[in-house]
Design a protein that fits this description.
Distance between the termini: 87 Å
Keywords: Signal
Oligomer: single chain
Radius of gyration: 23 Å
CATH architecture of one domain: Sandwich
CATH class of one domain: Mainly Beta
Number of helices: 3
Amino acid sequence: MKTFSIISLFSLVIPTLALSIGVPPGPRHVQGQVVEVLNKDWPPEEPPPVNDIVFSWCRDYNMSSTCFSRALKHGWCYDLPLLDSAVRDQLEDVGASGGQCMLYNGFDCKGPHTARFVGEHLWTKYLCPKSKVKWHRKSGSVRCCAGTPTTQWCNGDARKPDLCSK
């Protein structure tokens, strides 16, 4: 009789506990509006990318509280103000891990661009030191591609992805 009472008590308590615990929140994947999705943008001799590229930026190079990062999809174009509303006016530091990225002066990944970059905490003023574009004040969008620095750039919009536009 005691065994039956204990079992019936557990059968009432365990489901109640399970409901009160809740489900932990899933990973947060916040991204801007996708401007463009590319097709057939990966060399057939290489496996397609499976991971996102982490694009990071800081509004002020010396203040870590102004630094952010987002996982961006391979080959997609993101307008920077959709990722961070204040970034168009002040972008002092950028980085890319798990791939390479390129900044564009205009929205929709149009206009002059930086050379593709990879690494952390790159000072935007020196991405293209001879450029007429002040990248720390006039960056409009970003595109990132998975792969190593030797991997072909994933989009044909940049004729010379290793060089800055004039």
